[in-house]
Amino acid sequence: MRAGSEPGPHLLKAAEAQAEPVASDVPAAAVQMGRVTKAEDKRELGRADVDRSEGFGERLLGVLLDRAHEMPPQLIAPLIAEEVGTIGGYDVSILLQDYEQLVLVPLPGRGLTAGEPELIDDSPAGAAFLRAKTVEVPQDNGVRMYLPLLDGSDQVGAMALTLDTVDDDNRRMLRRLAGLVADMIVTKETYTDQFFRARRRAPMGVAAEIQWSLLPPLTMSCPQAEVAGILEPAYDVAGDSFDYALNDDVLHMAMIDALGHGLDAATMATVAIGAYRHARRADIGLAEIYAFMDQAIKNQFGPDHFVTVQMMRLDITTGQLQWVNAGPVTAVDPRPPGGAAVAQPDHPAGRLRRRRPPDQ
User: What is the C-alpha to C-alpha distance for residues 180 and 185, in angstroms, rounded to an integer?
Assistant: First the structure.
């Protein structure tokens, strides 16, 4: 109906018919009382059927979670060892991946067993870490268990402990405990250097320190896509970096290489990643993101400096891929059948010729 017009006679009749009370032999109050009685019966039935008492497993995880909220990072290790001990576990180790992703390094701490680093490619702990599955190794004194520490899909490391015997209840409880431990480590490491020091096995340059602090989680997975990245050389990287984000059904990714070495390159890479994130979060197209990054680099560093960039946008439901290659490296086309790509400017950010990159 148009605004300001009068309703037609057929609409008025329909409205009058709907407004008339419906005849019924049952009083309205009785109907309402019956509804209330049925709802109360359902609630009573739910109370009778559902056991809401705290079980042992819930109590174990709940105590760890409740106590960890305000606990300083250095007390997390003894708290984990203490809680594992309540189910008969001992010789507890928290193993974190080093920056080169070659070994799993024991986290020092009271109550934890500190041994030698374990090779990721050739150890039970490494197998649990790589496969994201529990590994059990029979020993004379029991069973040594290695559980992956996963924060979502981000691989933090592994947790090792020994039990006299293992059953399905132990496996289920420890798997959930390992997930909680990983969450605690990721949360606490934002305001402590304890975990960074454990992972570092060689002196790290200032430029590399800056670059590692810029990175998103090194791994991410969902049913439709997986992302994994690393910086090499881990302790001496300067202008290389990457970033990604999964927004709804679209996976965004960028890889950059800033001109030069040392702090100058690290500074340019920082500006490039910052500009990329800023433009990406404005929800604009790849060509516009590229132009924004190009302008940011030129404004800050002048025409003699540049950053090469490869950017992509992948629709994880349809497989449609778009990318921009702003540099000398030819992008590999990973399109599945039916995928689509965006044209490539082939000019580094900061050295854009006076033409706009091709539209999507």
Answer: 9
